[in-house]
């Protein structure tokens, strides 16, 4: 399990426990289709979560930061995440083909 710290563009922070974090570059096919880079991870219930903007830090079980990503600012000028986006599944379908790039 990893700890995922998400610092939103408005300065607010969220801490998530998650498995299989993966980064999708804005230069990849999926990133170009979405218009930005994202970080995916599975939460403790096994549901895929997606972080779209802000800064993301991935911390392992001994407290070492193993990856960090700057996803940039919100493209829509507001914070949308898995808790307040009614169209989350439509905007970002699950990515079963993406493998964990952090070990």
Task: Outline the structure in words.
By secondary structure, the protein is mainly beta. The protein has one domain. It is built from 2 helices and 6 strands; from the N terminus they run E-E-H-E-E-E-E-H. A 6-stranded antiparallel beta sheet has the order 4-3-2-1-5-6, with no helix packed on it. The chain is globular and about 35 Å long. The termini are close together. 19% of the residues are buried. Mean pLDDT is 77; it is low at 77-103.
Main β sheet profile: 6 strands, antiparallel
Structural class, from secondary structure content? mainly beta
In the sheet with the most strands, the strands line up as: 4-3-2-1-5-6
User: What low-confidence regions span 5 or more consecutive residues with pLDDT below 50?
Assistant: 77-103
Helix content: under 10%
Q: Any idea what the radius of gyration is?
A: 13 Å
Mean pLDDT across all residues, rounded? 77
What's the total helix number?
2
- Broad shape: globular
Count of structural domains: 1
**End-to-end separation:** 11 Å
Concise synopsis of the structure shown:
The protein has 103 residues and is mostly beta strands. It contains 2 helices and 6 strands; from the N terminus they run E-E-H-E-E-E-E-H.
Q: What brief labels describe this structure?
A:
103 residues, mainly beta, six-stranded antiparallel sheet, 6 strands, globular, disordered C terminus
